[in-house]
């Protein structure tokens, strides 16, 4: 046998010896990437949770980890149910949990238990208390500033000392305080806050009752604007104004770019909404969760840190919200594929769409 042949046989034998080990290593690596991500969302009232956040997070998890699965549960606005859902997920062995807490304080002990069990928790959209491993949301202060600026612009000359009704979000939601602080940084010293409400559960019905009370106290012609913290509250406020005989609706803000709110904006009933590109938020949360599940740190998906009442220096990603008016629907919501003109321009909205330059036949 030639020296060359002996070398080839030796190399072949060495290669055969390596193959089983390499195959085992590949199997182990694949197995390590076959885990379950838990997703806990707070409510079915707002359309975004079921229609945007859940499918977007699931899709991004699959892109990052094709062999991974998503286990999902919705609390239905019940913190006790969400605590049970979290305990169940930890017991069944999820590797990481993405949590939008129905009650940020009530979930503290459950987050602590998950942490002790080695299951990191990513706080999603609102910052929960307890040892969360990361936080993904939008800059709440900027949300409030966008609303305040849009309200002042829409009020025009009436912004100089005009009367507004301030309709904040749920008093138990830290995001509500964040939005309010941002709005006040713009409104203070410019307008008079004639009435201010904290709207339990972000409820349309509660907002309707609040605005009805405001009209009764102030008079139907003495409300120059309404700072509504989100679109559900805006819907209640606008309905109450109409029911109270207000013929010329004052400017009303919103948030979340709900489809019905976009239609109200096109029709001129609601002044604006705040669009939070949910795809970017969902993607960042999925990236953070998968990194933590693989034993890494969330720093790659984080750009800053935040503090909660219980935990300091939480790695965070705070995304940039955008204001949407009738003039900017095309360059925001239509451009990003959130809605089509056909979805927005239903039969009763078509005349307003035509005035706004939106063609219901467009994609």
What does this structure look like?
The chain has 363 residues and is α/β, with parallel strands linked by helices. It is built from 13 helices and 12 strands. The protein has helices at residues 3-32, 47-64, 79-92, 108-116, 140-155, 174-187, 204-218, 231-243, 259-267, 278-293, 329-334, 341-344, 350-355; strands spanning 36-41, 69-74, 96-99, 121-124, 134-138, 163-168, 192-198, 225-228, 273-275, 304-306, 314-319, 322-324. The strands form 3 sheets. The protein has a 7-stranded mixed sheet, with helices on both faces. The model is unreliable at 1-31 (pLDDT under 50).
How much β-strand is present in the residues? Answer: 15-25%
Instruction: Write out the strand line-up for the largest beta sheet, numbering strands in chain order.
Output: 2-1-3-4-5-11-10
Distance between the termini: 73 Å
**Could you report the average pLDDT, rounded to the nearest whole number?**
90
- Per DSSP, the total helix count is 13
Low-confidence stretches: 1-31
Instruction: Based on Cα principal axes, name the global outline.
Output: globular
What's the helical proportion of residues?
40-55%
| N-to-C series of helices and strands | HEHEHEHEEHEHEHEHHEHEEEHHH
What is the CA-atom radius of gyration, in angstroms? 25 Å
